[in-house]
Write a structure and sequence with these properties.
Blueprint (H helix, E strand, L loop, with lengths): L2 H13 L2 H14 L7 H8 L3 H13 L3 E3 L6 E3 L2 H6 L4 H20 L3 E7 L2 E8 L14 E3 L4 H8 L3 H9 L6 H14 L2 E4 L7 E9 L2 E10 L9 H18 L10 H5 L1
Antiparallel strand pairs: 1-2, 3-4, 3-8, 4-5, 6-7, 7-8
Helix pairs in contact: 2-4, 3-4, 6-10, 7-9
């Protein structure tokens, strides 16, 4: 009966790097202690020995991640982590990670696809890839659409915090709110949206969320058009998009097993 727990412990042991684990424990601990901690306080808070922690703290200080106050002997975080996190624009990083995967979707499905993000009450298309076929439907990079007209906007909203959804629903006409709430709930349950486009007749929107460490960050959408011949079906295209969106999310630091949406996204 205890095999799953034992297997998890074994996997954790195999992937564990003790020195890195200790360093991250120290950094994460000090994130919540704005006034800093002494060496003894760090050791006590982490439940480790002085021998385990002393050299890690000294090394992090030498590398500039921690600073020791000479008056109180307390260690606190410096701004180095902040500087590192802002050295690359997050939008550029998202596009850089997504573009080759979008190109792969287009090649495997013979359909165009694009990556959209929320921009207030609109969806902004960050990047798009056309179908490799001579003719098809595509959305222009940089295009801006009202959330109400897009699958991307609804998919992102469906996986956003409840207060974000509630504010958006409250801004809609009263007679549309219940239907919108049901739509968002259905998307959350399914892990995607497959619905006719409200803008282009004959186009079927296949839309899947993309996550990073903070939560939902974007959506991949393909405006599916039926092709004559042996082109993949809409169901095959959706399966490809779902797998690719999960791959992109993992590359951005998303951990499905730790997310309440993990089951819907991986099923």
């Amino acid at each position: 009966m205890n095999k799953p727990a034992a297997n998890d412990a074994t996997k954790k042991a195999k992937s564990s790097v003790p020195a890195v684990e200790k360093a991250l424990d120290v950094l994460e601990l000090l994130t919540d202690r704005s006034g800093g901690l002494t060496m003894n306080e760090i050791v006590d808070a982490l439940g480790r020995t002085m021998g385990e922690i002393y050299r890690v703290v000294v090394y992090l200080t030498e590398r500039g991640y921690l600073h020791q106050d000479p008056r109180t002997s307390r260690y606190a975080l410096t701004l180095k982590l902040f500087e590192l996190s802002h050295r690359h624009d997050p939008t550029e990083r998202l596009i850089h990670a997504a573009l080759p995967l979008l190109e792969r979707i287009a090649a495997r499905t013979s359909q165009s696809c694009h990556l959209g993000v929320l921009n207030r009450d609109n969806v902004l298309v960050l990047t798009s890839v056309q179908s490799p076929l001579p003719a098809g439907y595509a959305v222009r990079t940089g295009a801006l659409f009202p959330v109400s007209q897009t699958s991307s906007g609804h998919v992102i909203l469906a996986f956003s915090p409840e207060d974000v959804q509630d504010r958006h629903i409250a801004r809609q006409p009263e007679d549309q709110r219940a239907a919108l709430a049901r739509r968002l709930a259905r998307i959350r349950h399914n892990g995607f949206e497959d619905t006719p486009s409200t803008m282009i007749t004959g186009v079927r929107n296949l839309c899947v969320p993309v996550f990073d460490t903070r939560g939902v960050t974007a959506a991949i959408t393909s405006g599916f058009i039926g092709q004559v011949g042996d082109a993949p079906s809409a169901e095959d295209a959706l399966a490809t998009i779902r797998l690719t969106a999960l791959e992109l999310s993992r590359s951005l630091g998303f951990l499905p097993d730790a997310s309440p949406f993990g089951a819907a996204l991986t099923s």
